[in-house]
Design a protein that fits this description.
Elements (H helix, E strand, L loop, with lengths): L8 H11 L10 E7 L2 E8 L4 E2 L3 E2 L1 H20 L6 E9 L6 E12 L3 E10 L4 E11 L5
């Protein structure tokens, strides 16, 4: 079944540090916390550097979380190919997110040979409200 993971969250985090070290620059800002059949959970550990004027987590930081969620889904389900790329993301910001952990619950909507479509709910705060929602598409390179 195509929705069976081929990499664990720990393997993904090691792989990301190897192929995309500039993402976290030695920190643990963006991490995969869970991989399961058909999806994953990624986390942004939002600190002062992710906060925009007004005390809220910036749009670019949440957009990055959405994009990383898609990347983790494609890596964990389509295989260890660092060259999968985003072809589209659409994001809606719903409410303010404060500094702290923001979990992105990501699910694969369709996984084909060359494209993966996903969505992600970004959840934060003591009441675990949805702060943003995104849908996106990743292009999967042909098997070499």
């Amino acid at each position: 079944n195509a929705l069976t993971p081929v990499m664990s969250a720990d393997e993904i985090n090691l792989f990301l540090n190897e192929v995309f070290p500039q993402l976290n620059n030695g920190s643990e800002d963006y991490v995969a916390t869970e991989v399961f059949p058909g999806g994953c959970i990624v986390r942004l550990n939002a600190t002062d550097r992710h906060i925009r004027p007004g005390g809220t987590v910036s749009g670019p930081a949440l957009f990055t979380l959405a994009d990383i969620g898609g990347y983790v889904c494609v890596l964990s389900h389509a295989g260890r190919d660092a060259l999968s790329v985003t072809t589209n993301i659409s994001i809606n910001f719903m409410r303010k997110a404060e500094a702290g952990p923001i979990d992105g619950k990501c699910r694969i909507l369709k996984l084909g040979r060359s494209l993966m479509v996903f969505d992600i709910e970004m959840i934060a705060g003591p009441d675990q409200q949805v702060v943003a929602h995104a849908t996106g598409t990743y292009s999967i390179p042909p098997k070499r």
